[in-house]
Amino acid sequence: MNDLIKNTHMNTVTLDFTSGDMADISLFTGRKNGRKAKQYFNVKNGDRFIFIANDYQVITSSYFLGLVGEELTTLLKKLNNINDLLLRVDFTQLNEVSQNECVRAIKRGLSENELLL
Question: Between helices 61-78 and 96-104, what is the axis angle to 10°?
Fold first, then answer.
């Protein structure tokens, strides 16, 4: 049985852009801005990450890497490869543009780190 299915006690980090101060923002861009938002979203290391946003909100690859790049790199070190990491990140509640941006961030931004592991 797949380890992802067996482990039901995963530490899940949920990042919800649909409420609070973030609800009215339509574009999230810039690695620096992503890093600044870590505290707002209470970003921490986890085994699974869930992203929730409104249809009108766009999360760019640079913002995504600033927000969770370090945490995903830490998780990647525990896994076999980028594909295993992608299974641990739920983008299904993002619009197509944001999904593509976030997947691209993982494949380009973090896969370069994979060679260093």
Answer: 50
